Amino acid sequence: MEYRRFGRTGLRVSRLGLGCGGFGGVGSEPSLFGQGEDEGAAFSIMDRALELGINYFDTADSYGGGRSEEIIGRWLRSRGTRDAVVLSTKVFNRTGPEPNDAGLSRRHVLRAVEDSLRRLQTDWLDLYVTHEVDPATPLDETLRALDDLVRQGKVRYVGASNTEAWRLAKSLWVSDRFGLARYDGVQNEYNLLHRAIEMEVLPLAEDQDLAVTPFSPLAGGLLTGKYALDRDHPSGSRLTLRPGPYTGLLTPETFRAIDALGVEAGDLGVSMGALALAWVLSHRAVTAALIGPRSPAQFEPAVEALQVRLTAADRDRILDRMDAARAQ
Fold it and tell me: What pLDDT score was predicted for residue 3?
């Protein structure tokens, strides 16, 4: 396993991060709390991740309604592995019925971190990430609360997810202006079917020396080739459990592009999933990619991806081939 510096910090994280959004649920969707991977399956996945040298584990307080954090906490305690893991969790999504049980207000952030620490059975978080933007809360209010957590030793570093470049740049300015802990990483979606961050977020991250840790590098599994328009989705797959985020991609154009990726993978002698993940990892600004295997066996394409070396010309050729197929 290769390790990279997390932005400008001295923290080092594995090139693959373990996304734990499927533990005890399917992300933050309340109707799916209690589904996803049960504790036994999650323990096996985390054991395999650690065996592979993956030290970066990412979750959120809303995943599975808190179940993901609870499962990770019990695993950390039972395995005695807290010091081996760079532990990241997130705050923003609703965790209760009251008006202040969501968002990035000082009140919610300070309450949410205590709940996360309790569920994770730890005294500190390596990384605390704002899960979404909160236009209703001033940036300086959120950043002052995060700064307090860093000064108290409850949080080592902070990051932002699902954010626009302008808001991230303004946050960095606020931190600099008032001497507050600043965002050291950004976590947005990035894959061959969703490249919006290339326009502004990635250039900003390079300029400001931010870690970039994309989620959904395989577009919910679409880029593995296991889905098709003319057949039912595999039982228990993400597109059967939570199709909403991917509905807009279920078009003939998308599947022609995916077929073109399959041709490229065949030419290179690798699996489609490995090639899609290697494409994300090959961007010079990307620190680590978050993967969400649902069993130990599903780590294999990710491990394979680490052996695939793509040049800038390879990246462009893959895009050109997919774009040409999409336009047919």
Answer: 98
How crowded is the C-beta side of 55, counted as CA atoms within 13 Å?
A: 19
- What integer pLDDT is reported at residue 38 of this predicted model? 96
Could you list the active site residues?
63
The CATH number that applies at residue 303 is: 3.20.20.100
User: In the sheet that 289-291 helps form, which strands lie side by side, from edge to edge?
Assistant: 211-212, 183-187, 155-161, 125-130, 86-91, 56-58, 16-19, 289-291
Instruction: Quote the mean pLDDT of the chain.
Output: 95
Split into its structural domains, the chain has a count of 1
In a domain, 109, yes or no: yes
The tokens for 279 are 């494409």
Strands 289-291 and 211-212: unpaired
Cα separation of 252 and 224, whole Å? 16
Which residue range(s) make up the domain with 44?
Answer: 3-221+280-310
Q: Is 130 left (phi over 0), alpha (psi -120 to 50) or beta?
A: beta
- Section 111-121 average pLDDT: 98
